[in-house]
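pls ignore typos typing on phone
histidyl-adenosine monophosphate + seq
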Amino acid sequence: MPAFQTSPGMRDILAPQSVRWRRFVDVFAEVVEAAGYGQLITPLLEDLGVFTRLGESTDVVTKEMYDFVDKGGRHVALRPEVTASVCRAFVEHHPPTPWKTWYAGSNFRYEKPQRGRYRQFDQVGIEVLGADDPYLDVEVIALGWEFYRRLGLRQVTLRLNSLGEPDDRARYVTELAAYFTAHHAELSPESRITLAKNPLRVLDSKRPQDAPVVAGAPRIADCYSDAAAEHFATVQAGLSSLAIPFTIDTGLVRGLDYYRRTTFEYQGGTLDSAQNGLGGGGRYDGLVEALGGPPTPGVGFALGVDRTLLACDDESVFVAPDGATDVFVVDTTGGAEALTITSALRAAGLRAERAFDNRSMKSQMKAADRSGASHAVIVGSNELEAGAAVVRPLRATLVEGQPGQSTVLRSDLVDHLVAHLRNSTS
Ligand code: HAM
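k done
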């Protein structure tokens, strides 16, 4: 057992998974930048107050925050999500609206770690501040959908709800509280505690004991004002016109308190139900104001990188690249030849590796095979004397009937390999 290991719920991401991770963010950037979203990088650490606006009754704020007092006496926290930071940045920089941003990075929540649930986890997301248009909700949802499609995921489903205008929501919460209080005895002990803090979250309960009470609960749709109903109808019509399938789920309340009107969640088809929320979001029209800015509508989503990659594993899509280089240089003359050859190959745009510590020919050839490179360049004392090198296809690329290896003049080596590799990949 090593003296130190990663803290619970925190992980090292090694290659080639780390390469896949980076490509994941690249694909996301391609999708959202094509729609005019610009990247925003915010600090991992903010004043605690930025995040308490997420809702005093949410677990994220009350139980899971990594907060501490810094050496200057400031009460700060590691961000549990990015939406609040985006709103804080909006108030701080007052950019022109609509402000369309995307982000990628780590978040911290002190949760019970399990597969798909970590204490440090990554999200990619978008937020748009300053536009109220229901077609923007559609655009946001459609961009997340398109991203999953680009990854190759086919089993993701979309759940949609509207929490109405703030007044509708408040009326609904009152009705819901009265209903659940009347059924108090039938609820699970956990839901009774939730009821005291946030009646909406009782709808989220997955405990069988709560199912009948939850099934009979009042519906948010019955509390919609005309404006909320119209906004929601336009969102649904817009999604249908883009042929994006969705199901309405009136129980979809989501874990953070700031949502108003549209809320949505993308669910994976293969993960356990507790961790199948691949991503989600919605409208949060009050958050900028709560952070000291002017009344500003907002809408966005965040997608969990960790969970989405687990879903990719389960669907065998977006696999990790093998990370192999093109050429492995074997030098049994001391290593200086490998230095100049790898350097020249890399300058010509090829991926080139070499062995170190002046190992034997056998050991270097083994390393070359293990590297996954398609070709070895071999320099022994004969080649050194002749100003040449041997180019040998390695196991993976050796095709029956084709010449096994050739001797190439050092002055032609780079051009030879560039031409050869280009032909074999085209
Ligand atoms: P959230 O539902 O808390 O929303 O998180 C979004 C996604 O982050 C989840 O669907 C999940 O995939 C991932 N996630 C959350 N917690 C964990 C965890 N402990 N381990 C692994 N993955 C996790 C938000 O964060 C909102 N800021 C989304 C939003 C943006 N709403 C409007 N704009």
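Residues 81, 83, 109, 111, 116-118, 121, 123, 125, 127, 254-256, 277-282, 284, 300-302, 304, 306-307 surround histidyl-adenosine monophosphate (CB under 6 Å). The mean pLDDT is 93. more later
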